[in-house]
Amino acid sequence: MLSDIILYSVTYAKQIDWDLIVRRCREKAFVRKNVIFIVKSFERQEMVRGLCRSIHRLYPGTAIIIADDSRHPLQLNRPNVTVLHLPFNSGLGAGLAAALEQVKTPYVMRMDDDELLSIRSRVHQELLYLKKHREVGFDPNIKVIDHDEFFWRAAGVIASAAALNTVVFHRHNPYDRKYNTYRSDYENDLHYISTKKRRILQNPSFPTRQVYTG
């Protein structure tokens, strides 16, 4: 019986790719040292808790900053998670700008509260790519239209880069009429952007955006 156990243990050990394990450990340590996950959360508190679990399952100890402007402030007592409580319905731009002010790492990974990381979320590879593209910015005066513009990028208004070898799950959201009234309330954003464009045309030195540079 003892010899069978020893034989099984030796056989099993030979099947383990130790080089892969060491490489993955180094990648996790690299992510933990160099990136902070920032999340803008609004009225989807159970989902943002699930996102935090998925991040820490793949990258234990990695810092997460959540900017929450829900009507009832998010209460989340979890190691390496910081929750910023903002005034109700402050908006996406203000939330991301507030989160970026707290970043101390060279890089950030911005996620929505209804997303999940998977084993195919290769954050390490994305970080290596970002060494050549280190600037990102958000205008805190724009509340929600940023989300809609994600789906309009094919029109050429915004340039995007896609990492085809990485996967992030987008969770299904049951229709919520009350939530969607806030999500679709971007008339003020359109007016603000129109005014801003006129000022830029009149004065090319007018600041176009707030920028975080890693």
List the helices and strands and how they pair.
Blueprint: H1 2-15, H2 18-34, E1 35-41, H3 45-58, E2 64-68, E3 81-85, H4 92-101, E4 107-112, E5 115-117, H5 123-130, E6 135-137, H6 145-150, E7 168-170, H7 177-183, H8 187-202, E8 211-213
Parallel strand pairs: 1-2, 1-4, 2-3
Antiparallel strand pairs: 5-7, 6-8
- Ranges with pLDDT <50 over ≥5 residues? 1-6, 151-161, 209-214
Q: Give the strand order of the largest sheet, numbering strands 1, 2, ... along the chain.
A: 3-2-1-4
Tally of individual helices: 8
Characterize the biggest β-sheet: 4 strands, parallel
The global form is globular
Overview features:
214 residues; alpha/beta; four-stranded parallel β-sheet
Could you walk me through the main structural features you see in this protein, from its secondary elements to its overall organization?
The chain is of the alpha/beta class. Helices cover 43% and strands 16% of the residues. It is built from eight helices and eight strands. A four-stranded parallel beta sheet has the order 3-2-1-4. It is globular, with a radius of gyration of 21 Å. It starts with a helix and ends with a strand. The N terminus and C terminus are likely disordered.
Short description:
With 214 residues, the chain is of the alpha/beta class. The protein is built from eight helices and eight strands.
